Amino acid sequence: MSAVGLKHLAVVLATACVFTAHLGEAASPRAEAATKALAKIESDPAKFQAFCALIKELRAAHDDAVKSEALDKQMDQLLRSIGPDVFLAWDLAGEIDPQTEDGAALEAAVDAIEGKCGQ
Predict the structure, then answer these.
(1) Does the residue 32 lie in any domain?
(2) Range of the domain at 76
(3) Which of 81, 85, 106, 119 is the most exposed place for a label (fewest CB within 10 A)?
(4) How far is the C-alpha of 20 from the C-alpha of 23, rounded, in Å?
(5) Torsion angle in degrees (nearest 10) through CA of 9, 11, 17, 19
(6) Is residue 16 domain-resident?
């Protein structure tokens, strides 16, 4: 094989490797949109503070089904007040398998937002 042929082969292989690596990291457009929607939770300081308070209360109430359900309803109302896309993204994050690529991306987004609450 000539030097030009080897260079061409190297470029093709390098491009394939980069493309394959990028595919392994990318979440679906649906998960990317949900991640962007979740970022809106922080956009209103008062609502973000309310979000953090609800997260703290939900963690404390994990053994109390009645209280957890009431807090879940409050969280739903809060998220809907931020935006319907935020509510749907939160719902998706709770339903999707965290072992999938999309689930891992959403779980990371939720963890990052909750981490900013300063427990």
Answers:
(1) yes
(2) 28-115
(3) 119
(4) 5
(5) -120
(6) no
Angle separating helix axes 84-95 and 65-82, nearest 10 degrees: 140
Number of other CB atoms surrounding residue 26 within 10 Å: 13
Cα gap 68→28, rounded to integer Å? 31
Q: Would residue 64 count as lying in a domain?
A: yes
pLDDT value of residue 71: 95
Quick one: tokens of 37? 């929607």
Task: Specify the 3-state DSSP secondary structure of 118.
Answer: coil
Taking the model in full, what pTM does it have? 0.73
CA neighbours closer than 13 Å in the CB half-sphere of residue 81: 13
Which parts of the chain sit beneath pLDDT 50? Answer: 3-24
Judge whether 79 lies within some domain: yes
